[in-house]
Amino acid sequence: MKLKIAIQKAGRLNEDSLKILKDCGISIDNGKDQLKASARNFPLEVFYLRNGDIPQYLRDGVVDVAIIGSNVLVEKGVDLKIAEKLGFSKCRVSLAVPKAAKYESISDLQGKRIATSYPHTVETYLKEKGVEAELHIINGSVEIAPNIGLADAICDIVSSGSTLFKNNLKEVEKILSSEAVLAVSPCIGEGQKEILSKLQFRIRSVIAGQQSKYVLMNVPNDKIKNVIALLPGMRSPTVLPLAEEGWSSVHSVINKDKFWEVIDELRQAGAEGILVCPIEKMVI
Ligand SMILES: Nc1ncnc2c1ncn2[C@@H]1O[C@H](COP(=O)(O)OP(=O)(O)OP(=O)(O)O)[C@@H](O)[C@H]1O
Ligand SMILES: O=P(O)(O)OC[C@H]1O[C@H](OP(=O)(O)OP(=O)(O)O)[C@H](O)[C@@H]1O
Ligand SMILES: [Mg+2]
């Protein structure tokens, strides 16, 4: 028995999707042009598909799970369950208008033409706000639409904002935030659910590891208490005696986002020779 997983065939999500599987210790025999490949050391079959087609494949039970942008689920798969957020391909779906256009509120879009690849998302948002507009559905290069006179506004993915900038547009409304997620088919079988929970366990360990750093430092014994107060650790920090009397080595795990802040505090509290190491996996 195998778990069938869909990942994007080519595009923004492809590389990171393969990487997270690899970080989970799963090796896939893949020739680039294959549409299907098997894992060598895990009961997993990988299907390479178009991102936009994946919600339907999940619904039909052609695949059991998929790695997909949550923005696509909002557009085409609100009925599908998310098993895990994966933390990559972070972006937002936003409305934008030409830089020179007057824009004060969403009601300025009343009766206007909006170009987008995400019609359902825009429609739902406008309906909520009580605004009616004319939607033009296009599949790519949406940002060019106002410049060629096809639309007054657009709705598309924004990440750095550089595509908007290059096309003389300004972001005016953020509709949603998105990241890659692991979505699940409503038809998944019991056996596949068991494999999925093993996969989820590995994914969580990988993500937790990515979010944390292992730190080691030397601390004079009379300052250990102050230093430990700054360190959460998984249970509590490890304290080992150094060869030199009166000193200890303190080991702990800290969140990578709080990292520089904590390091400064640790130094002030008396820690020296601080080493910071990446964590490959963290089993919680
Ligand atoms: N600039 C970006 N920064 C971060 N994430 C992005 C960006 N553009 C797209 N994404 C995310 O990656 C997903 C795939 O985008 P991509 O442009 O590769 O494929 P697509 O053209 O939407 O889909 P398909 O596979 O059907 O051709 C999007 O649904 C979104 O979640
Ligand atoms: O805010 P930015 O960092 O500029 O990113 C946003 C752009 O990235 C995506 O396009 P992509 O490069 O995937 O091309 P596509 O339109 O062919 O999908 C998206 O459709 C935006 O156009
Ligand atoms: Mg794209």
TrEMBL record:
Organism of origin: Muriicola jejuensis
Pathway this chain belongs to: Amino-acid biosynthesis; L-histidine biosynthesis; L-histidine from 5-phospho-alpha-D-ribose 1-diphosphate: step 1/9
GO biological process assignments: L-histidine biosynthetic process
Domain (Histidine biosynthesis HisG C-terminal): residue spans on this chain: 210-281
Pfam families: HisG, HisG_C
Location(s) in or outside the cell: Cytoplasm
Classification via SUPFAM superfamilies: GlnB-like, Periplasmic binding protein-like II
GO cellular component terms listed in the entry, alphabetical order: cytoplasm
Swiss-Prot/TrEMBL cofactor(s): Mg(2+)
Similarity field: Belongs to the ATP phosphoribosyltransferase family. Long subfamily.
Domain ATP phosphoribosyltransferase catalytic: 50-204
Free-text function comment from the UniProt entry: Catalyzes the condensation of ATP and 5-phosphoribose 1-diphosphate to form N'-(5'-phosphoribosyl)-ATP (PR-ATP). Has a crucial role in the pathway because the rate of histidine biosynthesis seems to be controlled primarily by regulation of HisG enzymatic activity.
Protein name: ATP phosphoribosyltransferase
Reaction(s) catalysed by this chain's protein: 1-(5-phospho-beta-D-ribosyl)-ATP + diphosphate = 5-phospho-alpha-D-ribose 1-diphosphate + ATP
